[in-house]
Amino acid sequence: MLASERSGWPGAATRRIGACGPWRGNVLSAFPLAQAGPSVLDLVLDAGIVAKFVLLLLLLASIASWGIIVARARVFRAAARETRAFLGRFHGGARLAELRDLAEKWPHSPVVALFKAAFHEVSQLSLESPQSGGRALDEEAIADVERMIARTAAANTRDMERSLTFLATTASTAPFVGLFGTVWGIMSSFQNIGMTGAASLETYAPGIAEALIATAAGLVAAVPAAVAYNYFLRQVRVLSIEMEEFQYDFTHLLEKRRRRVG
Questions:
Q1: Please, which contacts does 101-110 make with residues 24 or more away whose CB atoms are closer than 8 Å?
Q2: How far apart are CA 29 and CA 19, in angstroms?
Q3: pLDDT (tens digit per residue) in 106-156
Q4: CB atoms within 10 A of CB 165
Q5: What stretch of H or E contains 41?
Q6: Spatial contact of 47 and 73, defined as CB atoms under 8 Å apart
C-alpha cells in the first residue's frame, strides 16, 4: 500500500483519479454509444440528395411489401381454413347440390371456386340440373368438364400468385439498391478527404454513416420480403396440389356416375 494511502492524505485520491483521466477518456472514445452523438435520424436528415433518394425508395418498397404481406397472409389463412372445411364435407360424402349451397360460406378457397365452376359446367351439361333427371355425362362431356377444371385451376393459381412478384423483386433488388447507396457514401467520403486534404473523422464520418445506413435499409426491405415470398410460394403450391387432387376426385366421381347409370 502506498504511503499516501496509509497516511490518509486527502490529495492522494485526487491525484490517482487525475492520473487515470487520460486513460479514461481513451476508453470512452472507443465506445461511441457512451458519448452523445447524432442519432440515425440526424444522419439521414444530413445525408446528401442521392442517399436520401435511395433511402426513400427503400422505404416505399418496404411499406408496399408489408402491405402485401399483411393482405396476402389473411387471404392464405382464410383459404387454407375454408379448403379444409370444404374437403372435409366433400370427402365425407355430401351431395353436390348440398355443397353448392354451402360454397357461398367459403369465398376465399380456390378449391371451392374450382368446385363452383365445375358444378356450373356439369349443370349446363345436365348432370345435376333438376331438368336432367340425374342423367350422367358421356365420356366426351366429362373430358370437357375436366378441361374446364384445369383452366379454372390455372386461373386460380395465377390469382394466388398475384402480388408475389413484387415481393420477389423487392427481395432480390433491395440489397443492390442499398449497395448503391453504400458505394455512393464511400465515394462521398473520399471526395471530402480529397477536398480537405485531411483524413480526419469529421471528414469521412458522414459519408461512411450514409453508406452503412443505406446497407441496413436495403437489408430491412429485402429480408422480410424474401421470407414472406418463400412462405407464400409454399402456400400456393399446397393449394395447387389440393386443386389437382380435387380435379381428380371430381372427375372420378363423374366417371363412377357414368358407369353406374350406363
A1: 106/82, 107/82, 108/75, 108/78, 108/79, 108/82, 109/78, 109/79, 109/82, 109/83, 110/79, 110/83, 110/153, 110/156, 110/157, 110/159, 110/160, 110/239, 110/243
A2: 17
A3: 989 999 999 998 888 888 876 444 444 455 677 788 888 889 899 999 999
A4: 10
A5: helix 40-45
A6: no
Using CA atoms, how far residue 94 sits from 24, 97, 98, 245, in Å, is: 80, 8, 7, 17
**Amino acid identity, position 213:** I
Burial class (CB in 10 A: 0-12, 13-18, 19+), 7: exposed
Whole-angstrom Cα distance, residue 156 to residue 240? 9
Confidence check: pLDDT of 206 > 70: no
Set of cell numbers at residue 162:
398475384
Domain ranges in the chain?
Answer: 1-36, 38-261
| Model pLDDT, residue 26 | 47
Q: What is the mean pLDDT of the chain?
A: 78
Lowest mean pLDDT among 12-26, 55-69, 166-180, 242-256: 12-26
Would you tell me how many other CB atoms lie within 10 Å of the CB of residue 210? 28
Neighbours of 175 (CB within 10 A): 20
**How is residue 147 written as a grid cell?**
378441361
